[in-house]
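Please produce the structure of this protein holding 5-O-phosphono-beta-D-ribofuranosylamine.
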Amino acid sequence: MKKTAISVFASGRGSNFQAICEAINAKKLDAKVVSLISDQPDAQVIGLAKKFQIPCFVIPKKKSQSREEHESEILALLKIHAPHFIVLAGYMRVLSPLFLKAWYSERGYYRVTNIHPSLLPALPGQSAYAQAFNFGCKITGVTVHLLDECVDTGPICAQEAFEIADAKSILEIEQMGLKLEHRLYPETLSWILKEKFEIKMREGRTCVCKD
Ligand code: GRF
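Below is the modeled complex.
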């Protein structure tokens, strides 16, 4: 079966990008990263793209550009390698409906995935591990989801929780969370990218049902 072409979007450290590349190299994930897109010229992930020999494109948003103009620039570039899925891995921008439309599948979803460091819908937004620590949560977790037009609200594909009641710092929670992310994201991508699921309305709620 043909490998699914993906483009990873990342703005920072890139540990999830690395986990995805490693899963592909270990043949645990049947995909090919055709490009890495970053909006941050100094992002650590750029060095990782070089290491894994992934074509890397840095496209910062210019002050004069609207969000849609910036995204149009990215969309034009994506046409070169034509990924089937967009995989967000610490991409610090909210994508507009215009961008999502380009990845709409007739099967009723956008072919854009994200990993969020909490059990959504709890703790949306930035610094979710810090939020979990500051709220004194007893457990938190990780969510892999598809995107919709709002922020951190798209159809949930996979979630896993971990206990943080005894955690002494945000860093400790982040380390536990990242370890989980690096396993859960590639694992979940392995069936998302093959589109081995259906989006169904069940009891009035949207469910991602794995085949
Ligand atoms: C991760 O915690 C991810 O869940 C969130 O942003 C962070 C990115 O980390 N969306 P990294 O750049 O993959 O190391």
